[in-house]
Amino acid sequence: MKIVRTASRATRLRNEPGRPLVLVPTMGALHAGHLSLIEKARRLAGPRGRVVVSIFVNPAQFGPGEDYSRYPRPFPRDRRLCEEAGVDVLFHPEPDVMYPAEFSTYVNEERISLGLCGLSRQGHFRGVCTVVLKLFNIIAPDAAVFGEKDYQQVAVIRRMARDLNVPIRVVTAPTVREADGLALSSRNAYLRPEERAQAPVIRRALLKAREAESVSPAELTRQVRREIAAAPLAKIDYIAVLDARTLDKPGPNTGELVIACAVWFGRTRLIDNIHKKACNPHKH
Amino acid sequence: MKIVRTASRATRLRNEPGRPLVLVPTMGALHAGHLSLIEKARRLAGPRGRVVVSIFVNPAQFGPGEDYSRYPRPFPRDRRLCEEAGVDVLFHPEPDVMYPAEFSTYVNEERISLGLCGLSRQGHFRGVCTVVLKLFNIIAPDAAVFGEKDYQQVAVIRRMARDLNVPIRVVTAPTVREADGLALSSRNAYLRPEERAQAPVIRRALLKAREAESVSPAELTRQVRREIAAAPLAKIDYIAVLDARTLDKPGPNTGELVIACAVWFGRTRLIDNIHKKACNPHKH
C-alpha cells in the first residue's frame, strides 16, 4: 500500500487509463462501517482497479465549538486496517496541503443542505462539499463510496456532483451497526458507558416508526420523539420525516420517506436514518 | 466543426487521450478579442489537438437589472467565425442544460471577487466561478484561455482552480483594442456614437498613469479619475490601483501593480486595466 501526502503525488494516480479508480473519502478513526465501504470499493474497482482511501479530518466542516481538535486520529491503526483491507493507496494530507495560504474558494449546496444537520451545524456542508470536490479533483476516481448513515451528506454530494457536472459515480453502502442496533460512528468512542447503554433507543425508535401503518409524517415525528425522549440521557436535536429523494416535506408525489434524526448524548451528537414507504392518502 | 448542445455529448470529447483539448469559454457575440483567444488555443492544442469554444450567455453571472436579456446573441455569425478560425467543436447549450430543475450548487471565491466589479455586480463572480467550473468538468480540457481585459475574472478563476485542485491550465491572452485604444468588448455594440467617441479616454488615462513616475497609488487613482472624468459622458464606477498578483492593496512586497477601472457610458459599463511596475519607496 502506497501512502501519499501531497496533492501532486496523488494526482499522478490518474495517469493509468484503463484501471478503474475508486475513492473512499474518510476522516479516519476507521471502524467496520468504513471497512464495508472499502469492501464495496474493492468490488467496484475489480481485479485490475485500485482503491484509494483518503484520511483527512477536514477543518472546514467543523463549526466553532465542535470537536475538530479532539476528533480521534489513530493513524497507525487506520493504516494497518487499510493495508489489511487491500487498499492500494492511502491519501493522508496535512491541513495546509488541502488549505494552502490564501485559500478562498468554497462550494455551497444551497437547498438540500439547509435543514437537518445544516441547521445545527452552520457551514458544515459547505466544508463537506468543498473538501469532497477537492478530493474528486485530486484523485479523479471513476466512483466514490459514501455511507448511508450520513443520509443528508450523500444527498448533498449527489446534488453537487450533478449540478457541477462532476464525472464521478457517487455510490453508497448501507449503515453498519452494533449488535444492539447503534449505527457505527467514530464518535461513538466519545460515549460514556451510561450514554452508550441508552444510545440504541435511536434505532429502536426508527424501526418502530417504519412498522407504523397509515400514520402522517407529523404523527410519525411525534412518535419517534416520544420514543427517544424516554431515554433520560437523550437530548433531541432534530427528528424529520421527509421525501427521501428531495429532502423536502413529503408531498403527493413522494414515494419513499426518510426518517432522519440527530440526538445528543452528553457532548456526543449521533445521527441515524431509516427509509419507509410513503402511505399517501391522495393516492387511494 | 461539430456543434454540441448537451453536456453528455460534450463529455464524450474527453475519450480521446493523447489529443490535447483547449477550451475557450465565451458568451458569444464574438469579436477580434475572442478570435485572438481561439488563435492562442489553436497554438496550445497543436496539430493533433482540438479547440472547443463554448458559447453560453450565463444567466447566473448577471445581476437583476443587468443586460442578460438584451445581451447580443448573433449565433449564425458566431458559428461562421468559429468555423473560419479552425474551431473543432462549438459547445452551445441552452440554459436548462446548464441549470436543470432544482439546480442548487454554486462556487464562491470569497476574497479576490469581493472588490472592484464584485462590489457593483453582486453575485457576478459566483455565477462566473460556477459556470466555468461546470464547463471545465463537462469538457475536461487540458487548458482554457481567457482574455486579460477581464483582469479580476482571470484572478478569480486562477484562485478557484488552485483552491479546488482543478487539473486545468488557465492561460491568458492580451486585450485586443480598436485603433483608438478602446478595448474590444461585446458590449461596445451598445454604445451610442457620442459615447463611442469618448470611450477611448479610458485607455488614454491608463497609459498616462503607466508613464507617471514615483507616484503613490492614491495619487495614481486621483490622476486616472481626473483624466476620465474630463469626458462629459463618463460616469466612473471604480478606479483601483492594486497588487497585480493578490488584488490586495499594494504593500511593501508588491512588485507589479494593476490599475483597473470600470466606467459607465450611458447604460454601458466598460472595463479595462493596465500593468505598471510598483515604485516602492521602502525598497530604496
Keywords:
homodimer; 284 residues; alpha/beta; Rossmann fold; Pantoate--beta-alanine Ligase, Chain: A,domain 2; 2 domains; 10 helices
Strand order of the largest sheet of chain A: 1-4-3-2-6-7
CATH architectural group of the largest domain in chain A: 3-Layer(aba) Sandwich
Query: Spans of chain A of 5+ residues with little confidence (pLDDT < 50)?
Result: none
Number of strands of chain A: 10
CATH homologous superfamily title of the largest domain in chain A: HUPs
The CATH class label of the largest domain in chain A is Alpha Beta
From the structure provided, what is the oligomeric state, counting identical versus distinct chains?
homodimer
Straight-line distance between termini of chain A: 56 Å
**Element-level helix/strand string of chain A:** EHEHEHEHEHHEHEHHHEEE
Task: State Rg of chain A.
Answer: 19 Å
Count of runs of 4 or more consecutive helical residues of chain A: 10
**Count of discrete structural domains of chain A:** 2
Helix content of chain A: 25-40%
Strand content of chain A: 15-25%
Greatest interface: A-B, 32 and 32 residues
